[in-house]
Amino acid sequence: MLKKHKSGFAFLFAVGNVFFSNAQNFKASDPIAVNQKVTKGVLPNGMTYYIYPTAVNKNTASYYIIQNVGSILENDQQKGLAHFLEHMAFNGTKHFEGKGILNTLQKQGAIFGKNINAYTSTDETVYNLDNIPSKDGSVVDTCLLVLHDWSNFLSLTNEEIDAERGVITEEWRTRQDAGQRIYNQLSPAYYNNCLYAQRAPIGDMNIVKNFDYQVLKDFYKDWYRPDLQAIAIVGDINAVEIEEKIKKLFADIPAPQNPKKRFEIAIPENETSVFKLALDKEISNSGITYMIRHTAEKSETTYADLEKSTQRSIAFSILNNRLDEMAQKQECPFKSAQIGYQNYSRLNDIFYVSISPKPNMQAIAFTAVMNEWIRVSKFGFSKGEIERAVAENISGYENYLEKQNEISHKSVIGMVKNDYLKHEIIGDPKAEFEMVKVILSNLDTKILQEQINQLYTAKNRVVAVTGVENENNLNQELAFDIINKAENDSTLQPYVDSFVGKSLMGDVVLKAGKIVSEQKTASIDATTYVLSNGVKVHYRFADKNKKDVKLKAESFGGISLYDPKDMPSVSRATSLAMMSGLGSLSNTDLEKVLKGKIAGASVEIDNFTETVSGSANVKDIETMMQLVHLRFAKPRFDADMFALLKQRMQNSLKNKEKDIRSRMGDSLTLSIYGKNNPKIRLIDQKFVDDLSFDKMKSVYFDRFADVANFEFYIVGDVTPEVLKPLLEKYIASISGIKRSEKFKDNTVDWVSNKIDKDVFIKMETPKSSVRIKFLEDYTYSQKNRITASFLGDILTLRYTESLREKEGGTYGAQVSAGLGKLPKPNASLSVSFDCDANKVEQLLPIVYQEIEKIKKGNILSEDLEKTRTNYIKARADSKDFNAFSMDLIYNYFHNDYNMDDPKNYLDIVKSMSDKDIQDFANSFLKKAKSYEVVFKPLL
To answer: Per DSSP, what are the bridge partners of residue 515?
Structure first.
């Protein structure tokens, strides 16, 4: 099954005499069975391969090459070159000149950055081709040839190397935010000044800009070799045929002669505890990390290994449940906290405590979390806590087993990476099930305590604090004093589990209604039920995702019906309801009642609609229906939760001016709508002060008062025979007032139809951020909607070529174009990117030049065909999932069109011409209002 990281969510099984009656007996040394669905082999040249056939995405496959090579292998003259080499893999190989890989695969509907991508970390570099069509043998061969070239045949031309220097510099600039600068300060403490602290993958920009070509080529020759490489093919393929192709194609890659040793770094031990405080002018929230390093444990291969990881996972999940419960109280000094154990590097694991304190409460927060850890260490867990944790994991594991054929390609690749890089076997889930049954039959609090207490050792301790300027930041003396006092506190008492058996519905008395009519819609294979309370329910059976059920209920109205002065309360009404619980249950009690259930229901009030959303495993569909019923009939509003909500919002405002993204967002709003616009509410202290408990409650009851005004959509692996009685019991029983509501047009005018403004902001890492938008009323139709999408995606291709590749001016431009329907049909086009402040005036004209080219009909045929192919492929892929059925019935009944009818999508896509896009661009942009807001560093 999916292997469990030491910090991760473990899938476990039930405790109970019946459940364990047939349990086997295992010895500690018994091996975990290997998943036989995976084909694994090693070629004579040392290359490892994995093949995993699955039809989760029909007619597609994903291709990966995993390089056991990362920035840790760089020497002092190569800092950043492992990552640079990753970029060069897309800039020419033996069989694909220049941008040949991208151009070839984009013709198959792949998108650069989504289907075609890579990443570099300190210890590995991984390249991926995701969800590429697999039924055409020539396409399969092409993808394998790409992996082949990535292994040993990069071109690394001087011209392409020089062209990529600017792109990587701009990637560094984009990523060099306050969080990265804080990490740079703390990493020497995290890694005890070893090589890991000096080998950030992005590297040294002085080296990136100036290295000699041969230095990169030497790194490539030294480390990209088959004994450090694994390829993985996952998808709708014939495993035998793929294995034959791999053996034939990759045989010509030579085995290395006298290769450099692939070394691994152990973080040096420290007997004395280490403390580090990091500050940055743009940090607005503090954080505390307390870690204890360990030598990495051997990979999980035996029953004893599985027993240990299972016990730890249960213990940490209970502990974190306690911390989550504490965080739901206003007097709690932290916003969130977590304690766990995880792999940290190839040779080290860590026990960690991670805390997000409330402003000026770092010491109190650290004390509270340390006390809870020591409480668990001394007194362990209650029977009820263990039972609930086990029940939750039973449900998760059962759900996994039911859906093991739906494991995503990326999840499989995650298992493969762990097997190849960390030697964690890919286990057989059913066999592991038998082992875990035995493990849980012997579970008690003493065992859990013993397992996690072993991790709390005296040496290799590090306390790292992200501080905020002008706050009461934790210092070394106080931090170590808090730890010492907690460890020796004799006044701590055991945790009291006050939860007693409660039911979700409590004393709610239901008066079931009836289904009064039933109508089939053959064109989309749907059924509409009309209930006795006036509710319409549109239902479609879908089992592309086994045992999965989704529900959506929506009505018009939303925020648009209220005055701007009430915006704070209206916009946060559902947040308060969700925080408060349901019926007679507080939110913490609700979470406990739902342990072991895979079911949920949420509410939301948007600008023009109010929505109830639900989901469940089919075995828990009744629980989902109960939750939906209660969201309408028995919402809960807790005054303590209101106080907590206000406190959280006030805390987020403190130091808000330090956060660059927040300042940019507010500045953009003011630039567009002007200062003191009564229809626009920024999130400030006045916004928080205007929150009203009574108003929030009344708004919620108003928006969800009339269930008959909602249309319900239900899709999933549930039969009418199961669904209909539940509709009558839980939905038809909800009373309503049978009103008819619409939304209001609450459009806010811009200060001008053409806004051109520079905004200067003081920033630690100087850069410019560009925000451009065009907006105009426009007729809504399927043709126009799809044409707008073509325009945006073709511009994305153009900007990748011009702004990124040719100019080296940005890491990437984000483009969005589309048609909106509410409150009135309109077309929009948005462009945004970050760049060097000294180059922004050079790049801005290019943005408009590319748009003008399209308006003049200068559209590259290959761009049009790449986009067309992607749309056709994406639509075919989407039909492999239940979500398509939800979109189908929603669009049919809500938007009045059949998205599965070729005339409404495929015919339009297939017939789309450059003239269509040109005409749309000209008619839309001719009278469109626009803004260009450029953020620049204040020097």
So the answer is: 531
